[in-house]
## 1
Amino acid sequence: MSLPRTLGDLRHSIFSEERLRERRVKDEVRENLIARLRGKGDTPVFPGIVGYDDTVVPQIINAILSRHNFILLGLRGQAKSRILRALTSLLDPHLPYLAGCEIHDNPYSPICRRCHEEVARLGDAAPVAYLTPDQRYVEKLATPDVTIADLIGDIDPIKAARGGHELSSELTIHYGLLPRANRGIFAINELPDLAGKIQVGLFNIMQEGDVQIKGYPIRLPLDVALVFSANPEDYTARGKIITPLKDRIGSEIRTHYPATVDEGIAITAQEAWTRRNGHPLHLPKYVQEVIERVAFAAREDKKVDKRSGVSQRLPISAIENVISNAERRAIRNDEKLVVPRISDVYAALPAITGKLELEYEGEMKGADHVGRELIRTAIAKTYDEYFTGANMQQIVQWFDLGGEIQLSDSLPAGEALENLKKIQGLVEKLGPLRVSQKESPELQVSAAEFVLEGLHAHKRIGRSEERVFKAGEKRPEPVREKSFEPEERPYRQRRQFN
């Protein structure tokens, strides 16, 4: 479909004057959302957003249907920015504006001096251009050094000198980000980091729908949908959202971390770089669960700061490191298949420790120690999912009788499997993991190591820092106190003195 290129052609197209004059951005987003909801679930409202179908998404839908400006409030790594950017999918594919206009004026009702003069001079011959949905989204990361000029605008002496205009002319205005987002969506990330006096500059646009440029007796009636994101920690740590601005935000929507391990795995699988251009990869489900449960365990651990949160980026980065460590082993040992092991999770500690804000107790123990404890907890919970009620006494007894085996993360799969077969009953216990003795050595080693790590996590066998599995430490039996047997006269009667 060819799009009209002049104002005259635009009048006789689907972009009628009545439609463009009265249909504001929030109306446009609302109408497109209603059309998507009528699609009976064929297209998700926000593609790529996992775990919010019953919580966050309905609240966002209500805010859009109410034509509200809204804020997403949640800890780091909860897809707040992704949701804001996904709002562009609710915009029309093409929006006409007067060509060359910095604030994308409506061809039928321009608000800037330059476009007024252009339409008066050219009439229906005034050129028209079009905006795509991505071009109608403007995002600003709030920082303490942001000024009113950055957001709203200011006088531009260079523009005045080059154009031969007086400084009092509207043609010398340098428009800020907010006017440049006219007829689109303007997002501010980490709103509390914006200085209080700068937040005041948003009052007019949120309530009256206009901004005032410094030094000019003009008002620009902008058409903008405003959305924000913030971290609750920021209210006390670095700054706060001033009360009058909070009062003008229509809806406050709380985000959250994945509610289940399966949701976390789905998010991690979507975001992590797992499709490598090297060896074929087989990523066992139990390894994915262990990595995801590390984040879940960290969010519950008292040694980790809950106010800061544990980002979903932790399992994403960790699984990439896990695959890389397995890839390194396969390359060095000339193996054809890359299969991560639990030892690779420990090797991914650098991707875990940097994402944990520790409390005092955690700082005293050290990030590495806390990270290893979290991995061990995650292994124990995952092991229970597969082997609850399984009889592992034969394997434990093999170690109790003096058996030892070393499994480094660089050991070739063939050599490791020969060592593992010495452990009586181990290879036969891999059924719950859907690994049989007909599988490749890489798969069998990964599954067998998971069993051993699970037994170690439950303290049924021991393991040294050099990854030597051995018998668990024998705990001393508690000292039993002898029961008191009463005698005829347990106490000597006190002698009486006269």
## 2
Amino acid sequence: MGTWLAPAGAIVLDDKREKDMIQRCDCSRRFRASCHSVVAFAVLILSSGAAAAQDSPATPPRGLSPHVIDLREQSIGVALTQNIGDDSARVRRITLPQAQQLAAGAANPLARLGELQVEAAKQHRLGVKALYFPNVSTQFENLHFNTALGEVLTVRRPVAGTVLSVPVNIINQDQTAVNVAVVQPVTPLFAVRQLVKIARADENIARAKAGMPPAERASLVEKNYFDLLVAEREMIGAEAEAKKVRAKWMTVSNPGVTRVSAEQQTDTLGAARSWLLASHKVKELTASLDELLGLPAGTRLELVPPEPLVEHLSLTEVADRAAAASADVIEAEQTAIKAHAGRKLAKMQYFPSIAVIGGYSHQTAINAVLPEDFSYIGVMGTYTLFDSGKRERGVKESRLQAEAADLGVELTKAKVAGAVKTTYLELERSRELYRLTYRMVSATRVVEAKYVLGNQEADPAQATLEAELFRAELEYRQAYARVKSLIGDK
């Protein structure tokens, strides 16, 4: 047997203890060799990551805001950017506002759907508004009858006692008629006014809902952005922890011989597993963010941590703005407007329909009675005398719908007020948690700058603190986004 050299804290097994362990486990020599191969493979993976961190050329440092632990000088950051994708892949440095702007410009079916609904509601309102103006219509006919239309004038002879038929062609065999009519409604204009109110209410509802998909997409990009920042810090911590495990358990003997224990296998494989899971999570989140931003697949992102969120909202301000600008409140109020307009329309069914009509006609059908060219103007009115109680039932139905809509407005405002209070309390809680985490990270940074100056190795505790800071900031931003959605701030 050769002489075993082990660092401080390492455990070395002699032949006797190893044989006893193998006999107790009833393991064959082939199984023992396979176990050693697995450990050697895990060590190779970890060694390759460390070698890449030490031998690769320097890359531009990540831009970190003052409230984030500075890991830019750590060589482990270089290994991070090389392990998340192929070396030949593109690297793009991006900030959170730039990411949200790219996502807004990318193809978004929900945003396009909202725009189409707003435009359709607008065109419907303009179409209803056109009913205020007169309608111009034309008619044209050209007829030829196969026979003459007959004798229509007869005279009885008082002396002879016979009947004399006189051919008088009042209706010609060949007829041509052109008519141009202009109809201006009078009493229906009151109904048109209510129809315009309904159409405008639908347009307002569509506009209130149109801003929701872009806001949701921006929130989704923000969440993915911070999740990727957290995953990168977790990967840094996992790789730094793996280096500590390797330094603790690595033992070296004669060239080409390596001895490991079961505990060493467990720790090494656990560290390798943690690093692999963290690296794959970084890849998945990067691919998801690339898709949201419309970037080519495989684009590696160098995320710049955003500046701290600063907001000074009070509960009174949020409650007042939510009562006036909440999308739910707007929809309820516009629904009430539509219900009251419908009630007035139902009452107008009792009114007669009166219109002014005028036009010009050119005809050759009845020249014996009517001139060939003439104009006319007049008033036309219609009224339904009896409809079996349909109008009465319609008025009662519309009245009940209007009362229900008014009650819906009150309930919606009460619901929004309760949601505002709950959401604002969540905002306060997340704000305090973020500030507490920020102070802890800042204090840790000051201590490390004073006592660990010049240490270039990544500390798993640093990466963990930074990940917790990003989690707290994400929760704070999401709570703020929920408050903005309640107050109608897109």
